[in-house]
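User: Predict structure, ligand zinc ion.
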Amino acid sequence: MIEFWNDGNTPVHPVSAPDYMPGAQLRKTQLHRLQVVVKRAYENVRLFRERMDERKLKPDSLESLDDIAKLPFTVKTDLRDNYPFGLFASPLNEVVRVHASSGTTGKPIVVAYTEGDMAVWTSVMVRTFAACGVRRGDIVQNAYGYGLFTGGLGAHYGAEALGATVIPISGGNSERQIMVMKDFGSTTICSTPSYFLHLIEAAAERGIAMKDLPLKVGVFGAEPWTQAMRERIEATSGIKAYDIYGLSEIIGPGVASECGAQDGLHIFEDHFYPEIIDPETGEVMPEGEEGELVLTTLSKQAMPMIRYRTRDITHFITGPCACGRTIRRVRRIGARSDDMMIIRGVNVFPSQIEDALLRVEGTLPHYQIVLTRVKDLDQIEVQVEVTKEFFTDRVESMELLQEKLSQSIASVTGIRAKVSLVEPHTIQRSMGKAKRVIDNREMK
Ligand SMILES: [Zn+2]
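Assistant: Predicted complex:
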């Protein structure tokens, strides 16, 4: 990564140049890279070749970017079924890194990188940090987990290549996180938003207000969160909280990032070609309509992903961004189709519940959703922490708050939920991705 010694405080960082590529040139780059990567996958990955052959498609049949719609999708189970190395397009002696994501069931999925892939990954993470306003001279406390998870090392390499000072503290041990944040003067934190909320709380318990520390930027990802959650984080900590997006199957963090405008995430589409499809039919949606995000890696060598179905629901934001970047934006991802709960026949996302709760004053951004089934009828209970003042208040005002929250949930989701107000610190804090839903409905 080329980053010159005197690029420190430039408002538009030179490493971000590809973010501003004119549309016509970007499309040409994308088409060329697509043609090359499809050929590579066809020649080296048996599963992809078989699916192409079934459709009587040849890798050289792509004449325009729209032709991508002819190609077969790849889904998460394809990675599981070909565990561990079945989808590699490079021989092992060219693979310099593997990562794996812990599946909730069974075997993990394994992903691989060549030296070239590592360079791409680093470059998109550099662009991510640059878009979030991080610069040389910043002190980046990287509280994403290091290890098989892509978050830790992905952020690490990017921040280091940008010239920032990286503290590879990894996740957990809040006591030490706060000590380091204060003593080293961290200006940037990388973590899940829910873990940062936990740190704000843990600092307050030690008499430290985040607002008094040098911390100014949060680079948050690895779990869906809402605009309401962002407002709570920014108001209580005094930082700018940015949303970043990525997934191991594609590269890890670094697929997309918010910019200073905080109005949607720019996809680094010179490397990751985005489509929005109808999740039912698989058809490409008209520009701007909501659907499932599908990504194709345009430059991956070790493990190209062609039309990978992310299960994330979003839409393209049409029109130019205030920051001037030309690469397309998608709305922040609040919903994963995998997370969707079906309650009494109604589709409900945890992010809708979060939004409904945080609209009401007196709540804390810590909540849990418990699903049960009584006499074949789904029951939903939402446990939410409330501030000390509210909790020690009179019973009537607790009941009033409960009713307000229940109405707020009903107006967002259309279902009535039982709301339980709990004391601060009742709900378990997570060091990584927060577990929002406990589904006990299988147990009769
Ligand atoms: Zn922008």
